[in-house]
Design a protein that fits this description.
Elements lengths: L12 H10 L7 H4 L2 H12 L6 H8 L3 E3 L2 E2 H5 L7 H11 L13 H8 L11 H12 L9 H7 L17 E2 L2 E2 L9 E8 L12 E8 L9 E7 L8 H7 L33 E3 L13 H7 L4 E5 L16 H15 L4 E2 L6 E3 L4 E7 L4 H10 L6 E7 L6 H4 E2 L2 E2 L10 H7 L7 H22 L8 H4 L13 E7 L8 H10 L6 E6 L14 H12 L7 H4 L3 E4 L7 E4 L6 E6 L16 E4 L4 H9 L1 H9 L7 E5 L7 E5 L2 E8 L5 E12 L7 E9 L6 E6 L7 E12 L18 E6 L3 E5 L4 E7 L14 E4 L5 E6 L1
Helix pairs in contact: 1-8, 3-8, 6-7, 10-15, 12-13, 15-16, 21-22
Length: 799
């Protein structure tokens, strides 16, 4: 068990005194009037809010050990001076760590160091030392994944702050707002933001429904910032419809004509009317009860942030069509930011023309969310919209071509074979949830969907105008806000290339950017035990949205990476890519194979017998395992290094150069990079350590505490990177060249970016093959491939 905290802000003694007094834990003059032991006991009894009498205080103190053999009360009777060992033995218990399980009872200081908990050592404890150490203890994470102050807050210690006047909020502690806003009095309201587009062809500007949950204090003069999540899923999804139109991928790859052009996507009207304003209201006319919530937003809400959700165009109670990542969808979410900033109008309902302002907002907006949600945060940021001060972009797409295509190939996001932009548009077109509204728009939507499906061009898989409209990277220079990127190194849904390209594009820009890389797949990390992610975001948003000078940019690491070998280990870096590279040749001096012919070439055939083909189509995971075990080279070529003599950290984008020939006039090449070696690796998904164990506020929201742990059984291999390319797209994804059967061509293939430690004794393996049953089309063609290892290299970035 290891604690990793990055959101503890340095504070001098006077600041600690002031903040402890602000939350009523320290009373004036106690530092001068009490002895160190007396002050320590006072602070202890004040954080145990369940006690209301001296007898109960005595009973609680008697339940905590001050030494291996004495309770606090027994130890106090001896009139001994406070020591490091006594203070931190009690501290470990307050932090919910258990003797003999988490630490040795007779050596608490070693336990603190092993768990990586912050502490202060003093030879002779003074009252000032007690204050400083107790302040630090309140900021220290407990065994259940929250700092001690947040745990005490969730137990009701600070509910008295709910009644404070609005002008005394927020209350900051260690550079972050604390939970001083009463969730039972939250205002829940709905407004309809007017956009500058007409995507449903009805001659009127589209309206977008926005749901807001904000503190009651914001009606009493307190201007609060907004944490906005743009989620096309929030108003419901059409899962069955999506399943019905999912594309068949069990079809062959075909030869591409270099002169073929993709159809253009449908245009939207340029002229339309806007609503006439018939008055203005200070209060919303519509409310809501619940909405699908990101638990980080729940955590932020009681700290004074207004929580805003919008699903955008083409969703229930909004106008327009679902366009899947288009500039129009981006602009519909940008419009919400503009309204929050005071630059756009909204209405209390869809028809009355009664306008409403976000007068309660201080004009500062941060965007949060994972996957499609984080994608739209990135997209809105690239517009440079005023008021957007920060985004937390988690598992986000930066270029939709890299999500649904790759180097001239139709490509599935991991686990979603046959999905495409039109399928996702259909699944999120929640206007179907209002039957009458859907009947009015059905024919229009059907026409648009037909045009969208043609424009995405599954026939060629080429980069075209459709995908260019959904590529946010060319507009990164417009970003004015601070950006925090969070991504899983094992995310095969939104692949790591999306975050690497965004990270690289932001490098050198004046706005602050941060990067967190974890060992997960397509997940949230705000409920991890080993990392203070929620506190990091609270610190960051306090700086960007509350405009508090808390030095967040300096405190939070530029690059933070979770280790793939040692559990609960996070390491800081200054950048992603290493400062050097190693070139491996696919010959006997670097990566070797046992299946070369007399000419030195390696051959494999992509065709399988029908039974095997059908099985792998139905269970792609079995194909994946068969690929790892195909050492005889029936349908792949394996190149393996000698065992490593020491650990090797690979960081950056591996690049493969291959000379390859296909027996047909078309073909593809796929590659997997493998960490080969027996080891207990981290679990694929985080393990739930405590169901509902993470309390987000007092009687308001819970989350499951999670963490990656070492698997109980060893595994022999782990895929760490991969790549795919159409052999006719050798120059780039938009250019097509002819391919002559049997003729060797040179291909350069960047693989997915990595940050991975290969352990000593392990081997690096490169597997070359054609059909990827998990991601590419699966035609089962009788195509033979030849690899010329003498003209193949793998370039690996590393330290």
């Amino acid at each position: 068990m290891k604690n990793n905290q990055f959101a503890i802000a340095p504070a001098d003694h006077q600041q600690r005194v002031t903040e402890l007094q602000t939350i009523h834990l320290l009373h004036p003059d106690e530092e001068q009037q009490l002895s160190p032991n007396q002050l320590w006991v006072k602070l202890l009894t004040r954080i145990h809010i369940a006690d209301h009498t001296p007898a109960l205080d005595h009973e609680w103190l008697n339940s905590l050990l001050a030494t291996p053999d004495q309770s606090i009360t027994d130890w106090l009777n001896q009139n001994l001076p406070l020591t490091n060992r006594v203070f931190y033995l009690v501290a470990l218990q307050l932090l919910q760590f258990e003797p003999a399980i988490d630490f040795a009872i007779d050596d608490p200081l070693t336990g603190m160091e092993k768990i990586q908990l912050p502490m202060e050592h003093h030879e002779h404890w003074t009252t000032a030392n007690v204050i400083d150490a107790f302040y630090l203890l309140l900021n220290t994470r407990t065994k259940l994944g929250q700092n001690l102050l947040d745990r005490l807050t969730s137990q009701g210690m600070l509910t008295w702050t709910y009644a404070l006047p609005a002008n005394q909020k927020p209350i900051y502690f260690n550079g972050k707002p604390i939970a001083s806003f009463d969730p039972t009095r939250f205002i829940r309201e709905v407004v309809y933001v007017e956009t500058d587009m007409d995507t449903d062809y009805d001659g009127k500007a589209d309206l977008v429904k926005v749901e807001i949950m904000r503190p009651a204090d914001s009606n009493d003069g307190l201007k609060v910032p907004a944490a906005f999540t743009a989620s096309p899923y929030n108003q419901g999804t059409n899962d069955k419809w999506g399943e019905e139109i999912t594309h068949n991928v069990n079809i062959p790859l075909t030869h591409k004509d270099p002169h073929d052009q993709s159809p253009a996507e449908p245009d939207f009207p340029m002229t339309f009317t806007k609503q006439t304003v018939n008055g203005e209201s200070q209060t919303a006319a519509e409310s809501f009860s619940t909405t699908p919530a990101y638990t980080l937003n729940t955590y932020l809400s009681v700290r004074g942030y207004a929580i805003v959700y919008a699903s955008g165009i083409g969703t229930k109670d909004s106008d327009g069509l679902q366009t899947c990542g288009s500039p129009e969808q981006t602009d519909s979410m940008k419009a919400v930011v503009e309204w929050l900033h005071g630059d756009r109008r909204a209405f209390t309902d869809r028809t009355s023309g009664i306008a409403i302002r976000a007068d309660w907002c201080n004009g500062n907006v941060g965007m949060t969310g994972r996957s499609y949600l984080g994608t739209l945060a990135t997209a809105v940021a690239t517009t440079g919209v005023a008021g957007l001060k920060a985004i937390v972009s988690e598992a986000a797409i930066s270029n939709w071509y890299d999500y649904y295509r790759e180097n001239g190939l139709v490509m599935a996001p991991g686990g979603f074979q046959g999905e495409d932009a039109d399928v996702l548009a259909a699944e999120t077109f929640s206007r179907t949830k209002s039957p009458a509204d859907y009947r009015r728009i059905e024919a229009t939507n059907n026409r648009y969907m037909k045009g969208l499906a043609a424009a995405e061009d599954r026939t060629t898989g080429n980069y075209n105008g459709f995908w260019a409209h959904r590529n946010y990277l060319p507009n990164v220079d417009n970003i004015k806000c601070s950006v925090m990127m969070v991504h899983g190194l094992n995310d095969w849904n939104v692949k790591p290339v999306n975050v690497k390209n965004l990270y690289d594009a932001l490098s050198g820009m004046p706005n602050t950017s941060k990067l967190i890389l974890h060992q997960g797949q397509h997940i949230y990390i705000n409920a991890f035990r080993s990392l203070d992610f929620s506190e990091m975001i609270n610190l960051w948003f306090a700086n960007k949205l509350w405009e508090l000078d808390n030095h967040a940019d300096e405190l939070l690491p530029d690059v933070l990476v979770q280790d793939n070998v040692h559990p609960e280990t996070w390491t800081t870096y200054t950048n992603w890519s290493g400062n050097q590279s190693t070139t491996l040749n696919l010959t006997n001096n670097s990566l070797t194979t046992e299946n070369a012919t007399a000419s030195g070439r390696v051959k494999f055939n992509d065709h399988q017998d029908d039974a095997t083909y059908q099985k792998w189509c139905q269970k792609p995971a079995e194909w994946s395992q068969a690929l790892l075990n195909d050492f005889d080279g029936h349908f792949s070529a394996h190149f393996v290094s000698t065992p490593l003599k020491k650990d090797w950290l690979l960081r950056g984008t591996p690049t493969l150069k291959v000379r390859v020939a296909s027996s047909a006039d078309h073909g593809l090449l796929s590659a997997r990079l493998v960490d080969r070696g027996s080891a207990k690796r981290l679990t694929v998904s985080p393990v739930i350590l405590a169901k509902d164990g993470l309390e987000l506020a007092y009687h308001f929201g819970k989350d499951d505490l999670r963490e990656f742990q070492l698997q109980k059984e060893t595994t022999d291999a782990k895929v760490i990177s991969y790549g795919h390319i159409n052999l006719q797209n050798r120059r780039d994804a938009s250019s097509v060249d002819d391919l002559t059967a049997g003729k060797f061509v040179d291909v350069e293939l960047p693989l997915q970016p990595i940050f991975h430690t290969l352990s000593a004794g392990h081997q690096l393996e490169l597997i070359l093959f054609a059909t990827d049953y998990e991601m590419t089309l699966r035609g089962n063609e009788a195509i033979s491939y030849q690899i010329d290892p003498q003209n193949c290299t793998l370039v690996l970035p590393n330290n």
